[in-house]
Amino acid sequence: MAKSKDPNGEPPRGSLKARALGAGGWSIFNVLVGFGFRLVSNLIMTRLLVPEAFGVMAMATVVLSALELFTDIGISRSIMREKDGDDPHFLRVAWVVRILRSAVIAIGLFIMALAVWILAPSLATEGSVYAAPELPGLLMLVALSPILDGLASTSRELTMRRMENRRFAMIVLSSRLMSLAAMAGFALIYPTVWALMVGMLTAKLISSTMTHVFLPGPRMAFEWDREIAARLWTFGRWILASSALTFFARSIDKLILAGLLSSTLFGLFVIAQIWIEAGRGIINRLSTTVGFPAMAEVIRTRPKDVPRLYRKFQSVIDLACFSAFVATELLGQHLINFLYTDDYSLAGRYLQLMAPSFLVIRFLTIGNLIMNTGDSRSSFIISSFRAAGALFGVPLGYSMMGTEGAILGAVLAPMFAVPYILLRVRSILTTRQVLFDTAWAVMTLILTAIVFWNVNT
Length: 457
Fold this sequence. Notes:
mainly alpha
């Protein structure tokens, strides 16, 4: 495969295939480190804290995620896809835009904290996460997280654009180790939900600082350019709407169940979801840090090769998704029983019900392919379908089958967008590939029904 050159920047080192393999290897390492960190920290903290703590902390992070997605204009994706995305001036302007966005998020979190403090005592169900007295304080403190993340150097995105992820992987490893030490140490002295917050902020502080010190790239400075800012907005305005809807699609189950379940049951649901997110993280990372930049480069330099590259990359994703599904369904309950105390046994049942999520997530790669063409409007439409699926499926599932039904609705919500996705990519991919993707969607629905029947008999 011929070596390509990144316009307005230094030539990438090695062929696209070699760089994609290298980036994929480091991305998998990065996610495995994250998985190991979450496993170890989860096992340690579940022995130091009660399940309610995980539920309350999860709600604080859900609110943070909401505001992050409501203000997401795709700055990282713009850096990876724009022809001058590696230009120092572009990177500095993007950094300033990101700092402004982080300030908006922090202000929003303070407003939400005040709203919860004023309204929760009279409106929240007693014993639910919304009624937890720690929640307003957690929301105020979590406002530091977007500030720290916004100050991180855009050299982080530059390494992803060039698929040179080794140094960034080392930063993630270092920050997570320090975070675990801080969290566990605090919990030994003061075993409350605040220990989880200390760990989160420690990781953000270390990671943000190290992006300026250890990653190659221009030194950050406050620079402004109306033309670049306009380009970021033009590409990102549909992502903004899309991300807001993505939040609802991903988090509607938490928002609903947090009000319906006790803090303990909600905490068990969060524990199960931690394991699902750990597995999905590997697939997500491959898609966003390897597949997205690789396809972006091919689209920029030789668009005729897109179907072939997609087919090769999607084969890897499909194998990972199916393997994760089988492993979770067969071993999920045994895993929870082996690693946790009896108080957490119900999380194993929830984990098995969530297993089909791995079959659904394989369509993320197609969504990224559409995004790479510059069609952020289609991403908004895709997220609209997913959000509609969640808003319809989760409450309906709960009303018919309780907590298990709500989980089923959340798992299948992204499938509402699949028909539109397949219709949209007919002009990009081969007919054979579209037929294969259609067959995968049908298989997902059948296997999900089998899983639900098996768990409930």
